[in-house]
């Protein structure tokens, strides 16, 4: 490809437009200019023209063009690595702006660990009434979603208060206890979590309990681990509200110390101005207060 100038000073000071980089990222993501055009709502010739303009601005070929495919060149891969964070930043900016001008009818997004999310699901009808007429979107994950950028509206987090920002407000809503359960009082096998015991207190606790016993399986997903324990596969680490409620399971080890964790309800300060979010937050706090005994393994 011929470029209009090979003047090194011209190349050094030629800055690509964000629009062209956005189109480049879309072409890579969709594997073709046609796919990118459809995703962006533009014509294929427009996308091809903007990619050529970007290549001319940068003074490099970004793609090797085959009869039916595009492949990134070495330079193209380097530009992709440099531009990808810009695409992610643009996405965060859009979410943050949306969080500051929320749609009053948007679902209230609640994020929690799978243990807590499963507990909430048992009371979802009650929480739905508190949120009406809006919906609640449950996001079960161990990853700490960013409340400031609008990834979630309410977070239920375990044990440790958020640090490093004055924009978040938190209140302790209760405790949740964990214990080891099995179908027999002296299980010979254990269902262990998949992570390294040095990476979490729970994994370390199960590893200690497993000494002298057989590891029957490694299951990270708590609901699946519960079903496996209930089927008699072995002893499993479960929240007490679940294990104690199942007549097929026996509590092998009592909850104590690190097995009892504080639960905090965390929101961004601006959520106080959103009636729907506050209704759901208050309903969650009331649910935890009313369920305190079951959650704490009492």
Automatic annotation (TrEMBL):
Record domain HTH lysR-type: where: 16-73
Q: Where does the sequence pass through the membrane?
A: none
Please name the GO terms of the biological process aspect recorded for this protein, alphabetically.
DNA-templated transcription
Listed GO MF terms: DNA-binding transcription factor activity; sequence-specific DNA binding
Going by the UniProt record, its keywords in alphabetical order are: DNA-binding, Transcription, Transcription regulation
Pfam families in the record: HTH_1 (PF00126), LysR_substrate (PF03466)
Indicate whether Glycosyltransferase appears among the record's keywords.
no
Which family is this sequence assigned to?
A: Belongs to the LysR transcriptional regulatory family.
Q: What is this protein called?
A: LysR family transcriptional regulator
UniProt organism field: Microvirga makkahensis
Its taxonomic placement starts with: Bacteria, Pseudomonadati, Pseudomonadota, Alphaproteobacteria, Hyphomicrobiales
